[in-house]
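Review session, final week

We close the course with one last complete record, chosen because it touches almost every idea we covered. It is Neurochondrin, a protein from Delphinapterus leucas with 729 residues. Go through it on your own first, then we will talk.
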Amino acid sequence: MSCCDLAAAGQLGKAGIMASDCEPALNQAEGRNPTLERYLGALREAKNDSEQFAALLLVTKAVKAGDIDAKTRRRIFDAVGFTFPNRLLTTKEAPDGCPDHVLRALGVALLACFCSDPELAAHPQVLNKIPILSTFLTARGDPDDAARRSMIDDTYQCLTAVAGTPRGPRHLIAGGTVSALCQAYLGHGYGFDQALALLVGLLAAAETQCWKEGEPDLLAVLRGLSEDFQKAEDASKFELCQLLPLFLPPTTVPSECLRDLQAGLARILGSKLSSWQRNPALKLAARLAHACGSDWIPAGNSGSKFLALLVNLACVEVRLALEETGTEVKEDVVTACYALMELGIQECTRCEQSLLKEPQKVQLVSVMKEAIGSVIHYLQQVGPEKQKEPFVFASVRILGAWLAEETSSLRKEVCQLLPFLVRYAKTLYEEAEEANDLSQQVATLAISPTTPGPTWPGDALRLLLPGWCHLTVEDGPREILIKEGAPSLLCKYFLQQWELTSPGHDTSVLPDSVEISLQTCCHIFLNLVVTAPGLIKRDACFTSLMNTLMASLPALVQQQGRLLLAANVATLGLLMARLLSTSPALQGTPASRGFFAAAILFLSQSHVARATPGSDQAVLALSSDYEGIWADLQELWFLGMQAFTGCVPLLPWLAPAALRSRWPQELLQLLGSVSPNSVKPEMVAAYQGVLVELARANRLCREAMRLQAGEETASHYHMAALEQCLAEP
């Protein structure tokens, strides 16, 4: 067969097999075309390449362009199969006078036609061609060659068809398609826009795998898109706003990209815009806030003005959306605005290196308060049928972020909403899997209809804990929370979260939020112990909580890096033990003895004697484990010392146990080895409180203290109460 015949065969695609013409049938009649059937028979019976080409040409003449329906396509496939296209794609020698890509172009055209059938698009014989097809996207050649352009179009149709199958995206990624598409787009050759469209689809379907396989190339695309965005002066900048969120990496965004994105957004948002122009920009800004916090916003006057503009626009959008009646809420836009408000809350509460000046903070707090008022109004209208909607979850999240920092304003409105918040948190807690799914939907909602963003916390209760911690200090809100059953819910939640940290679970893979939630729960319980002691005594859930604290602390104090959580557990347990001292579980049981031994370990290891250059006497100093976190720890430590002191007269077995641990002796030894001037008055008071109660409670303790020069030490530190106690028989 001559090159001219091959070229004629190449026209087969244009007559009916080319990718662009594999459309649904325009059926001319109910029956089959007898001439076509005869030629298909010849195609099936062809014994060599020449006969197959000739038969394909006859099929082309029998079928008009665009006239091939799905059944006809399938019959052509049954006649041709994969063997012939495979040979066309892999042949390295073309007949004399023919360009080397003509055979490959025909092979791709056949594949593209077959791929119009979803079943064939997922066929292993198509999937194993992905690496070959990917190379065609970046192959060099005459950009004006029509046959080459047709081959590129067909290649994209093949790859797009594969991407539309259930496992297609994974096969494409494994076959190197991501890098090929990136290079095709960056080369800006023929079909580069199709490369970008297919990249968008792959990122939407399998973002993590795309970045794992093609990070350098995807970052190069991001740099190109960011630069285009920064320079764009026409409507393309709004289209780029919609594309760019998909190309932000799960890891660090390159600094040059952040500069370009911020500059482009500043120009867009600083102009008078319609909603269809503004909304994609707000969603892009929200995606950057998720990924980078405020790091993408430059310091200085321009950065502070830009951040203030972002937050103001977000607040206005939230109020317009939630306060106007009779209009459909654009939930994806409002959720993006919530993310920008959250960024504003963080910056307004930051004391050091904040981007905002004090007058800006005051103004933003005012506008955010109004927007939060709208959120509360919206949540008050939410019925049971809507509680599982992602937008409600997002609204609770932003309210939780606000309450974590500010509970004094909107107090009446917040108190009115508390019953709903408790019921909502309980509903999602009891359906934890749905709550986690909601969190993913919220992430999706905040950015675009197709791609998820960074994970949001997976339960509503976690979002509300910081705010409830503040509210349990106040009489009114605390009574509402108690009435609605929040303490019982919190106990169950604490026990559930604690299970995640117990032996048998890999704590190294736990998110930090689990430990933070446990600490915040402890703070809420501490507030209730102080302000509502009767509740602790009468509610059975606190007995279960006490049992868990006693069982857990001995192992917890031994774990590296968890001292702050141990401090919370120890202090809470000591305060609760004082209220539950008559409980059988605290009457010298193995669990109670283990708990108090661990509590003594926590309290006793905080300070050490440290030598100082040029001095004969050591000074009292923090031990290395406590030193770095003492600012967060010291209040718990002092409270724990006070609580332990209160437990001693209530639990007769505790003083002998403390004596066996040698804590009172070692404490006196420590005080005797350091300069009294190095021990702060509050430390002296804390130490004296424990020593006095132990001495009063047990004669053997008094004797042991005297043997440790207790009277002399008490005199040196002006511990009059201890000195008097030790003077007694």
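Two points worth writing down before the exam:
Residues 297-406 form one domain.
Residues 192-231 form the longest helix (40 residues).
Good luck, everyone.
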